[in-house]
Write a structure and sequence with these properties.
The complex is a heterodimer of chains A (390) and B (238). Chain A is of the alpha+beta class. Chain A folds into two domains: 2-51 and 242-385, no CATH class; 58-230, no CATH class. Chain A contains 13 helices and 13 strands. Chain A has helices at 2-13, 16-55, 82-89, 129-133, 144-150, 196-202, 232-245, 248-275, 277-285, 290-326, 351-370, 374-378, 381-385, and strands at 59-62, 78-79, 93-103, 110-117, 139-143, 157-163, 169-180, 191-195, 208-209, 211-214, 227-230, 328-329, 344-345. With 238 residues, chain B is an alpha/beta fold. Chain B has one domain (36-61, 79-229): P-loop containing nucleotide triphosphate hydrolases (Rossmann fold). Chain B has a six-stranded mixed β-sheet with strand order 6-7-8-3-9-10, sandwiched between helices. Chain B has a four-stranded antiparallel β-sheet with strand order 2-1-4-5, covered by helices on one side. In chain B, helix 3 (105-115) crosses helix 4 (120-133). The chains are: A alpha+beta (390), B alpha/beta (238). Chain A binds chain B through residues 2, 5-6, 9-10, 12-13, 278-279, 281-290, 292, 380-382, 385, and chain B through 50, 54, 57, 59-60, 79-80, 83-84, 86-88, 92, 94, 96, 98, 100-103, 111-112, 114-116, 159. The complex binds adenosine-5'-triphosphate and magnesium ion.
Chain lengths: 390, 238
């Protein structure tokens, strides 16, 4: 208790230097928390967007369907089984057909996916109604990024080519009735959305589908034979992996600033033990044991960590809170990250993470403060009192 | 060790390594002090005065021989026992005052009592008494940086005396003080010696200090050269 009191007085007595050391550590804490929050917010938003726009409450896949292998698409369709058809009829699910095709923007061939979706579906947050409202012979819906990439605009006409089951190529002109603003690449890049029934006719696959998306919150019946159910965790796995690769930032912040802070504290400790030899001698003369002196100096160093937490809370909390409210504008150029994050990320800070790094920095600070005190153990009190080092 | 025997050294030797050679700071010193003495070690620089005080104060250990202090053998004490002995029974006064810079005068005096775990109810009175002895009751809230040298040394005396130790060791207590302040603190110490029965042992060159001593021990090259009683020439003694 007496050592803690003295340590506190000593550390506050050193003034600006202590606060400077603490500030560097608080930078580590706040920057790392911020980065973790942004990544978590990004993860959450991307997951939400992916669910709202694409995955719903999970998907039934025709067993041959493999989103990473377009060559499987030729086999990846089947008539809708009765139980899935019932869900679709009840409005609790939406069927989708995926067919490989190509377009020729500016005279060059481009492989695309033709995706059929029910224009009246409501469960995905997706402007399919544009397909229903249009009077065009073959209305088509595309995403903004794809539109930009191939130079298509609303009202443009584009020739679609696809292969029929027999192997023959067929072609038809479609009219772009709507360009949807989206950042979700998996519903945007290289794909053209058509009314489901039209695509079924074109591909000569009436009543067939590649996958069926459940409405969020709908209990999932067991997958019928020939179909596999993919739950949300499965569907979001890739996205989560991708986000994880972006969380190295918080480690970098933590390591850099924490190292700087530790260096500063180590330096402060060594200097203060050297400068305060006489004080150490005095404490010993007054009846301090060597262990108490070591505890005093260790405590003084460790208090930097506590000051850092206080300081970090003082300047960091309002800043982090404000950031969570106002959002973090995604810098231009980071759009191509492949995940849908909207224009702003709202950081979601993790209490567990914050607690973890606070404990970590306190532990590291204490350790770094303890190291230089070995000098005290070697210091003879009589030399210390003369202001000499042994 | 008889009841009024405070310090007794026998063939006390302290040798310091000095590079390849050795320095004999104390050479078979036999000295005894009774309770209530007001004694001083004098002698040329390097004669071993500080070394003797440090060993008696359990800040250092003898190379050989024995140093009995308050019934304890210094050479047998562990670090912890030595710290307890200093805390409970020995007060130190230094040439450079050595107040804790972040504490007020009051808190500096309080420090040994906190170490001794004196209950707060008694603490306050003891501290105020000690500051009163040295005439600094009104400077209780001052910090060392706001005190003059004389005032600092008086706070240091209050800090050393607040626990009413049987032994006070003072190494060149007046070396950084002017004559007026030197006499002031010496009179204070003489008074405390008389009223509280505390034994004082000085190490000094200062004629002003020697003027107050009732016993003067002259060390030369780590040996006792003279050991003589004095009739205090100055001071307020009866
Ligand atoms: N830690 C040490 N290491 C080596 N030699 C030392 C050490 N401390 C003291 N000495 C030597 O021991 C001898 C006695 O020193 P001491 O400090 O006891 O003398 P002193 O009588 O107090 O002198 P002064 O009047 O200058 O204070 C001196 O020769 C000194 O150089
Ligand atoms: Mg000396």
């Amino acid at each position: 208790m007496i050592t803690l009191r003295l340590a506190l007085r000593n550390i506050l007595g050193t003034g600006i230097r202590a606060w400077l050391n603490a500030f560097i550590i608080s930078l580590a804490l706040v920057a790392s928390t911020w980065n973790q929050g942004v990544v978590a917010g990004m993860d959450e938003q991307a997951a939400q967007a992916a669910q709202a726009l694409e995955y719903g409450g999970g998907q039934y896949w025709q067993e041959n369907y493999d989103p990473y292998d377009p060559l499987t698409l030729e086999e990846a369709h089947a008539p809708l089984p009765g139980e899935l058809q019932r869900l679709v009829d009840e409005g609790k699910a939406a069927a989708m057909l995926v067919v490989q095709g190509s377009i020729y923007p500016q005279g060059r061939m481009r492989s695309i996916l033709l995706k059929g979706i029910d224009p009246r579906q409501r469960l995905l947050d997706f402007p399919t109604s544009a397909l229903a409202e249009s009077g065009a012979a073959l209305p088509a819906l595309i995403g903004s990024r794809f539109a930009k990439a191939v130079g298509l605009r609303t009202g443009d006409s584009v020739t679609l080519r696809w292969r029929e089951p027999g192997g023959a190529f067929n072609a038809q002109d479609a009219t772009i009735v709507h360009v949807m603003q989206t950042t979700l690449a998996s519903i945007d890049s290289n794909q053209v959305w058509l009314p489901l029934e039209r695509l079924q006719e074109m591909a000569r696959l009436p009543g067939e589908a590649t996958l069926v998306t459940l409405a969020p919150g709908t209990p999932s019946p067991e997958a019928p034979p020939g179909w596999t159910f993919r739950d949300i965790d499965y569907l979001l796995r890739d996205l989560r992996e991708l986000v994880k690769t972006k969380s190295v930032g918080r480690v970098v912040f933590l390591v850099i600033f924490l190292s700087l802070g530790m260096l500063a504290i180590f330096d402060t400790q060594v200097l203060s033990i050297f400068r305060r030899r006489r004080e150490i001698g005095t404490l010993v003369a007054l009846g301090f044991t060597r262990g108490q002196v070591i505890r005093l100096f260790t405590l003084e160093g460790a208090l930097h960590g506590i000051l850092a937490v206080i300081l970090g809370a003082l300047w960091g909390l309002p800043l982090l809170w404000l950031q969570a409210r106002l959002g973090f504008a995604v810098p231009a150029g980071t759009e191509g990250m492949g995940i849908s994050i909207g224009e702003k990320i709202y950081p979601a800070y993790g209490a567990g993470y914050v607690l973890g790094i606070v404990l970590l920095s306190l532990a590291v600070t204490t350790l770094v403060s303890l190291l230089p005190t070995r000098r005290i153990a070697r210091l003879k009190p009589t030399d210390a009192l003369r202001g000499r080092t042994s | 060790m008889s009841d009024d025997n405070l310090i007794r050294t026998e063939k006390l030797v302290k040798v310091y390594p000095m590079g390849a050679s050795k320095v004999t700071a104390l050479n078979r010193v036999n000295l005894s002090f009774r309770r209530g003495e007001f004694a001083g070690l004098v002698g040329p620089s390097g004669s071993g005065k500080t070394t003797f005080l440090n060993i008696v104060g359990s800040l250092d250990t003898p190379t050989s021989g024995s140093a009995g202090v308050l019934g304890r053998k210094i050479e047998t004490l562990s670090h912890r026992e030595a710290a307890a002995l200093r805390n409970r029974s020995i007060g130190f006064i230094f040439q450079t005052f050595n107040l804790l810079p972040v504490y007020t005068a009051y808190e500096n005096v309080e420090f040994p009592l906190l170490l001794l775990k004196v209950p707060s109810a008694q603490r306050r009175q003891m501290i105020m008494d000690a500051l009163d002895w040295v005439g600094l009751s009104d400077r209780a809230d001052s910090r060392p940086s706001q005190l003059s040298g004389g005032e600092s040394q008086r706070v240091a005396i209050a800090r050393a005396m607040v626990k009413k130790p049987p032994l006070l060791l003072a190494d060149e207590p007046t070396a950084n003080l002017d004559a007026e302040n030197s006499h002031h603190i010496l009179r204070t110490m003489e008074k405390l010696n008389r009223e509280l029965g505390t034994s004082f042992l000085f190490a000094t060159h200062d004629e002003k200090v020697i003027g107050y001593l009732r016993r003067k021990i002259t060390l030369v090259d780590g040996r006792v050269d003279h050991d003589e009683p004095l009739q205090p020439s100055t001071g307020t003694g009866a």
